[in-house]
Amino acid sequence: MADYLALAILNSREKTCTILQIDRNTMAEVPILGSDGKSIGTTTHQICYAYAYGDGLKQSCENTVNTVSQLLCNVPIDNYLSLTMGAIPILNDTVGGVTVTIEDDFTGIDDTLVQGATVHLMGEHAYNFVHERMRMPGDDSNTSRMRRQAVYVMALADVIREKLDADDGFALTLFSAVADYLVTDCAIDELSELSADLDAYTLKGFVSIEGENVKKELIEFYPDEEQLQKLVMELFCVPVEE
User: Of the candidates 39, 42, 64, which has an alpha carbon nearest to the alpha carbon of residue 51?
Assistant: First the structure.
């Protein structure tokens, strides 16, 4: 299943990038794929299952893209990039590590992540910070982990930008390091060019969908439909000039 879902929204007019973080527990109409990769129906399930109803590669990615698009009022999504969790330590260490402040209690899980401390994450400690949820106290809903993931991505983006400013070829180095963990519909040279273009964009930060967590057999997140439509309008629509 997809543990982390985020949609990067590029505003070419304002040269800004906003990241829409989507709770993996969001209830959605998820296509079920047959052996040929084509949809044989849908089921109402957590959106993370869209990835599971595929081959773990291209089919899973495309099924996830289609499900997210439908959730967001059928807004078109241009490209996808998927990394397995095993890529986190490699990605992290290739950029030289990422510095974050620890807001949660990792006692007994990773004692190097001391609550309240500022830590330079390396290797497995980066993985623990980004991935841990079920063993974390009070994190059944995934809310705390999403906050940590947003903090990590913002810090990671700053480090990558510094590396790109210092070395035009760093994007290729980074993508090559995680190539064995990566599935995307972009060629490596396209990713490298996109990374270079993004250097001109300002990362505005993260937004998320408002809604309610309901604890059943699984934690289910139900979006506020009115707020979701409003968010889609704000993120993807341009007012008509009269």
Answer: 64
CA distance 105 to 16: 34
Residue by residue, DSSP assigns 181-209 as GEEESS-HHHHHHHHHHHTTSEEEEEEE-
For residue 147, give the nearest of 103, 180, 179, 185 by alpha carbon: 103
Assess contact for 133 and 218: CB atoms under 8 A. Answer: no
Indicate the class that CATH gives domain 1-78+209-242: alpha beta
Residue 73's identity, in one-letter code, is C
- Residue 241: exposed, middle, or buried by beta-carbon count in 10 A (0-12, 13-18, 19+)? exposed
- On the question of pLDDT at 141 being above 80, the answer is no
Global pTM value = 0.91
Residue ranges of the domains in the chain? 1-78+209-242, 83-186
Residue 39 dihedral angles phi and psi, to the nearest 5°: -70, 135
Domain 83-186 has CATH 3.40.630.190: yes
pLDDT band at 84 (very low <50, low <70, confident <90, very high): very high
pLDDT tens for residues 152-185?
999 999 999 999 889 988 988 999 999 999 999 9
Strands 39-46 and 81-83: unpaired
Cα–Cα distance for residue pair 61/41, rounded to 1 Å? 17
Amino acid letter, residue 139: D
